[in-house]
Amino acid sequence: MINQLLPDSAADRTDDDLLALYGYPSQRPWVRFNFISSLDGSATHQGVSAPLGNAGDRRLFGLIRRLCDVILVGAGTVRAEGYAGPLVSDEDIRWRTAHGLAAHPALGIISGTLGVDPDSDLFRLSPVRPILFTTTAADQERVESLSAVSDVVIAGVESVGASTCAAWLNDRGLGRILCEGGPSVFDGFLAEGAVDELCLSLSPLLTGGQGSRIAAGVDSPDLRDMVLASLLESDSALYGRWVRAQGP
Ligand SMILES: NC(=O)c1ccc[n+]([C@@H]2O[C@H](COP(=O)([O-])OP(=O)(O)OC[C@H]3O[C@@H](n4cnc5c(N)ncnc54)[C@H](OP(=O)(O)O)[C@@H]3O)[C@@H](O)[C@H]2O)c1
User: Which residues, including other chains, have CB under 8 Å from residue 50's CB and lie 6 or more apart?
Assistant: First the structure.
């Protein structure tokens, strides 16, 4: 059961309620990040995020995927978590096609080194041809071998530009962007001021250890102001949605 606390309180929200609450605004591109954090601030438990999530989180995670044009993710997360096969369920596909979306969201992967195996299940089992965002510095042999199984897009010189990626996707009608991390990718988007929304699950679990925060990288002098748009609760976990503050 997922209960809504804000903007209004209401118990036991249906999937339709949650889809309406998490619907993308009209602005394109719209870059939404979705993360989970342990209560003590770690993005992982023993190297992966899945143990932090409860049933409510898994339900919401799927519904959030249902609404997007493209799932964008860093190569580190692909390597740690595995992204093989369809990323949405049959029920999601029915809902998506009935609502004018492509059956499957597109899949974008950010990688500087192109350290992903073209023979892996990531490419073999994907129902869509993945898009690989990389840089002019990428190894040409890897570009060629990965071009056989994906669309390789040069989106930067030394590192992939967040805004370049978002604009490229938007130009192809993929403006409802769901970025599932990880922390390095989030850091890059934060540095460019390219984060419109953060969906954050706060798990009631304490992990200890030295797991990364949800943003990991270069310390920025800037503070980014976000506004709480909604807050849900399920089994002591909180699911917040913060959007970029408007203003000067
Ligand atoms: N708590 C959560 O919700 C959550 C979500 C996602 C991931 N995670 C966890 O985060 C950990 C992975 O962290 P991570 O920071 O390594 O993940 P990441 O951000 O997914 O991946 C980092 C990698 O992505 C590529 N990359 C990122 N930004 C780039 C840029 N601007 N230009 C070029 N390449 C870029 C690089 O790939 P190459 O090395 O291929 O060049 C880099 O090594 C895993 O343990 C995962 O489980 C947690």
Answer: 81
Residue 127 CA, ligand 1 centroid: distance in Å: 23
pLDDT along the chain (248 residues), means of 10: 97 98 98 98 96 98 98 96 95 98 98 96 97 98 98 97 98 98 96 96 97 90 93 98 85
* Cβ–Cβ under 8 Å, residues 201 and 36: yes
Whether ligand 1 lies within 6 angstroms of the CB of 36 is answered as yes
Domain ranges of the chain: 33-244
In short, whether 102's Cβ falls inside 6 Å of ligand 1 is: no
Angstrom distance (rounded) from CA 39 to CA 203: 6
Taking a C-beta distance cutoff of 8 angstroms, is the pair 70, 32 a contact?
Answer: no
Amino acid at 24: Y
Of the candidates 13, 188, 97, 190, the residue with the CA atom closest to the CA atom of residue 22: 13
133 Cα: distance to centroid of ligand 1 (angstroms): 13
Q: Which atom of ligand 1 is nearest to the CA of 113?
A: 41
pTM of the predicted model as reported, rounded to 2 decimal places: 0.98
- How far, in Å, is the centroid of ligand 1 from the Cα of 184? 5
Closest residue by Cα to residue 64 from 227, 230, 193, 236: 230
User: DSSP class of residue 175?
Assistant: -
Position 248 scores a pLDDT of 52
What is the CATH number assigned to the segment(s) 33-244?
3.40.430.10
190 near 215, Cβ under 8 Å?
Answer: yes
Give the pLDDT confidence score for residue 31 in this predicted structure: 98
